[in-house]
Amino acid sequence: MQNISLKLDKSFGFISKDSVFGYAEEIRKHNEALHQQTGKGSDFLGWVNLPTSISEDELADYELTAKKLKEKKIDIFVVIGIGGSYLGAKAVIDALSDSFIQLKGNDQPLIIFAGQNIGEDYLAELRDLLQNKEYALAVISKSGTTTEPAIAFRLLKQELETKYGKEEARTRIIAVTDAVRGALKKLAVTEGYKTYVIPDNVGGRYSVLTPVGLLAIAVAGFDIRALVQGAVDMEKVSGPDVPFEKNLPAQYAAVRNELYRSGKLIEILVNYNPKLHYFAEWWKQLYGESEGKEGKGIFPASVDFTSDLHSMGQYIQEGERKLFETVISVAKPDNELLVPADPENLDGLNFLSGKRIDEVNKMAELGTMLAHVDGGVPNLQIEMPQLNEYYLGQLIYFFEKACGLSGYVLQVNPFDQPGVEAYKKNMFALLEKPGYEEATKAIKARL
Questions:
Q1: Residue in 106, 51, 48 with CA at minimum distance from that of residue 224
Q2: How far lies 116's CA from each of 48, 63, 87, 279, 423, in Å?
Q3: Domain that holds residue 369
Q4: Considering Cα of 26, then 28, then 31, then 32, what sign does the dihedral take?
Q5: Structural domain contains residue 266
Q6: Under a CB-based contact definition with an 8 Å cutoff, are residues 14 and 378 in contact?
Q7: Which of 210, 291, 339, 409 has the fewest CB atoms within 10 Å, measured from its CB?
Q8: Distance CA 108, CA 75 (A)
């Protein structure tokens, strides 16, 4: 099997190759710290060797649970979670699914997500949809008390029990939670739900290769073994013993930090395949939550090209010169479609007749890259041979490893997220949660 590739040459007009390769020894030490668990956030480094530690029994268990759910003839599998508890699964499932699966249907359950927002209309409309469908649900939360998924689970659990009765509902609820503690763990034990454990040493945004992501991906009908194997193979070629010139995550971490030090404060993840939209959303959480702290960090943004060239292209071409792009390119699409000839040629596009749509897309990609580089925007390119489970597994681990290394280069802890708590404290005070009385008085005085 091929591997994904990384091309840096379109950045070397802005930074030097020597400066990038000058990070080699520093990043090797950071890589050792990740593997030896001696760096910042060492309690959350379970993801580093996670791919090679996933057992045959674990994979078989996810597949068996998916099989049992499908035997119930479910139309919809609702996955309740927020942040890393839904973005990883959503990214992989969307990347692998038919773009119009919700309209076409297939022989696999449709995966729908809840608890990723507090939208009243969203939840009401989901409840109405489920009334006439066969469904089951998974709730993902270490604590069971995170507001958004807890509200969604409270609502949908009640609806499920009303529809099927309490005994049958138990067989249609799966809890993915802490091994021993927390509200959801307690409920799962009491009710007898099928339960999977979120490892204590794996944070949410690094958890797609745990039951947090693998269960939903299996229920959707995709090959979790190939996904894991891709991650295994990337893990093997990105360890501290792998030379810098062959270590793709190390190179990516180095070049983006050198660009950051040169004044490039924004990284835009670009795709030319709309199926990768939610992969970029997963990537934004991974890097934003890992690096954005202590007044530091590259701001992660994303665009879907060529669509966003007609909305964001002008700014990227001629706006503030504080950004760089990382392009994910898919070498071979799954389908082949030719541009037809038109006798009238009113649109003037007969020069494209007989060409594959993908050839037009690839020339748009190349032309845009050259234009943006000419306009002062460095470009990196990651090429996937094909958009499938194996290469998505490689890409997931590539970005995770590079994120850990990059955070250490920035001298921050890439595995905590202290800033996320600020809005929660304010929200609870405004909602007059018990125990927040003084905070409620203080915040209301500011309004």
A1: 51
A2: 26, 25, 9, 16, 16
A3: 5-41+230-411
A4: negative
A5: yes
A6: yes
A7: 339
A8: 8
Could you tell me the end-to-end alpha-carbon distance of the chain, in angstroms, rounded to an integer?
Answer: 60
35 plus 57 within the same structural domain = no
pLDDT in tens, 192-241: 999 999 999 999 999 999 999 999 999 999 999 999 999 999 999 999 99
339, 349 Cβ separation under 8 angstroms: yes
Tens digits of per-residue pLDDT, 52-87?
Answer: 999 999 999 999 999 999 999 999 999 999 999 999
Amino acid occupying residue 46: G
Q: 291 and 185 in one domain?
A: no
As a whole number, mean pLDDT of residues 312-334 equals: 97
- Same domain as 33, residue 172: no
Cis peptide before 306 (omega within 30 of 0): yes
Give, in order, the Cα–Cα distances in Å from 428 to each of 140, 141, 146, 148: 21, 19, 12, 13
In a domain, residue 423? The reply is: no
SS3 content of the chain, % helix, strand, coil (to 5): 55, 15, 35
Instruction: Give every CB contact of residue 420 below 8 A, 6+ residues apart in sequence.
Output: 289
**Residue type, position 44, single letter:** F
Any idea which residues carry the catalytic annotation? 289, 310, 424
According to the model, what pLDDT value does residue 296 have? Answer: 96
Q: Name which of 310, 305, 311, 312 is nearest 326 in CA terms.
A: 305
Residue type, 426: N
Report the CATH number that the domain containing residue 259 is assigned in CATH: 3.40.50.10490
Q: What percent of the chain has pLDDT over 90?
A: 90
Nearest of 216, 247, 202 to residue 53 by alpha carbon:
202
In tens, the pLDDT along 274-302 reads: 999 999 999 999 999 999 999 999 999 99
Q: How far is residue 38 from each of residues 236, 268, 281, measured CA to CA in Å?
A: 20, 31, 30
Residue 96, classed as helix, strand or coil, is helix
- CA–CA distance from 297 to each of 84, 256, 288, 316, 409 (Å)? 19, 11, 8, 20, 11
Q: Residue 446: how many CB atoms within 10 A of its CB? A: 6
Tokens at 55, concatenated: 């057992």
Q: How far apart are CA 327 and CA 349, in angstroms?
A: 27
> Which has the closest alpha carbon to 193: 223, 221, 215, 224?
215
